[in-house]
Amino acid sequence: MSMTDILSPKDIEAALSSCKAAGSFDYKIFFSKVGLSGKTPEQVKKVFSILDQDKSGFLEEDELQNFLQNFAPGARTLTPDETKIFLTAGDSDGDGKIGVDEFQSMAKS
């Protein structure tokens, strides 16, 4: 399964365009532009499973750093600051990673 099975290529392109510059990534804007906030819980879980590269059931810091590359292979990596902000925003239980339920909450916020 790929992102384009769930999200529109046009929306992916628009979302990636909104955060091309280092330091410009905002997960709320990205999730809105990519259309994730309007998807069903099952679709959001499918996106999560694509992002969870090591299939641990969590998104860890290294997976978040490469987050944009899951949407397009040539996309940039997130800066260390962007990655930390993204992780802090999603990690509601303080375990240092984002679980599927936390990701669902982020997608809907």
What does this structure look like?
This protein is mainly α. The chain has one domain (3-108). Helix content is 49%, strand content 4%. It has helices at 9-17, 27-34, 41-51, 61-65, 80-90, 100-108, and strands spanning 58-59, 98-99. A two-stranded antiparallel ribbon has the order 1-2. The radius of gyration is 12 Å and the shape is globular. One of its GO terms (molecular function) is calcium ion binding. In muscle, parvalbumin is thought to be involved in relaxation after contraction. It binds two calcium ions. Ca(2+) 1 binds at residues 52, 54, 56, 58, 63. InterPro entries: EF-hand-dom_pair, EF_Hand_1_Ca_BS, EF_hand_dom, Parvalbumin.
Q: How much helix is in the residues?
A: 40-55%
Element-level helix/strand string:
HHHEHHEH
Q: Name the poorly predicted regions.
A: none
Widest beta sheet: strand line-up: 1-2
Strand content: under 5%
Global geometry:
globular
Provide a short characterization of the protein structure:
With 109 residues, the chain is mainly α. It has helices at residues 9-17, 27-34, 41-51, 61-65, 80-90, 100-108, and strands at 58-59, 98-99. The model has no long low-confidence stretch (mean pLDDT 96).
Topology readout:
Blueprint: H1 9-17, H2 27-34, H3 41-51, E1 58-59, H4 61-65, H5 80-90, E2 98-99, H6 100-108
Antiparallel strand pairs: 1-2
Features of the shown structure:
49% helix, metal-binding, 2 strands, two-stranded antiparallel ribbon, mainly alpha, 4% strand, single chain, EF-hand-dom_pair, 109 residues
